[in-house]
Design brief:
This protein is of the alpha+beta class. The chain is 26% helix and 27% strand. It folds into two domains: 106 residues, Sandwich (Immunoglobulin-like), CATH 2.60.40; 35 residues. Strand 7 and strand 8 form a beta hairpin. The longest helix has 30 residues. It is flat and about 95 Å long.
Length: 175
């Protein structure tokens, strides 16, 4: 019992006198992405980027696989990559979602943001898939009226034939 107590006191003393190490995480914040990461066709999104240590990050490389990137809200040509160097309160850019429609499961946009040191090594990186517009079901019932009528008729006929079959089989037992 005393031996366990001594070991616990020793462990506590070692932990107390060891130098405390704090990890510095490279934190960043990205605002302006579409809700639920589903974009609306042709809509323009203003995306703001902020980092915890702005003195370490000298430039940001933004890459998108679908849509158009711009530093202003005017989109003149198709641009899939931006190099953002001027940082005041953070970086910002505009992304215009694609206007064409895609088949189900296609049209996703991969957004990649690389934060770079002055020497070109990566400070941190952000990757996200922004999915194409959600496919919403119609507000009416999903089954046509004729199918519902046919189903109820079939169920009614099945119940009637089951009752008649039970009466006939019971009659054979009584005789």
């Amino acid at each position: 019992m005393y031996r366990i107590r001594d070991y616990l006191i020793l462990m506590f003393a070692i932990c107390l006198f060891l130098p405390s190490v704090q990890a510095e995480d490279n934190l960043y914040r990205i605002d302006g992405l579409p809700n639920n990461l589903h974009y609306n066709s042709g809509e323009s999104y203003l995306i703001n980027i902020a980092v915890s240590d702005s003195t370490s990050v000298s430039y940001v490389i933004v890459t998108i696989t679908n849509g158009t990137l711009s530093t202003t809200d005017e989109f003149t040509e198709s641009n899939l990559e931006l190099n953002l160097t001027d940082e005041g309160e953070g970086w910002f850019f505009h992304w215009q979602a694609p206007t064409e429609s895609f088949d189900l499961g296609e049209g996703n946009a991969a957004l990649i943001i690389d934060f770079k040191y002055q020497n070109g090594t990566t400070w941190s990186s952000f990757n996200s898939i922004i999915r194409s517009p959600e496919v919403l079901a119609e507000s009416g019932p999903g089954v046509p009226q004729w199918a519902l009528s046919l189903a109820w008729t079939g169920a009614s006929v099945t119940v009637i034939l089951t009752v008649l079959g039970a009466l006939i089989l019971r009659r054979d037992r009584l005789t």
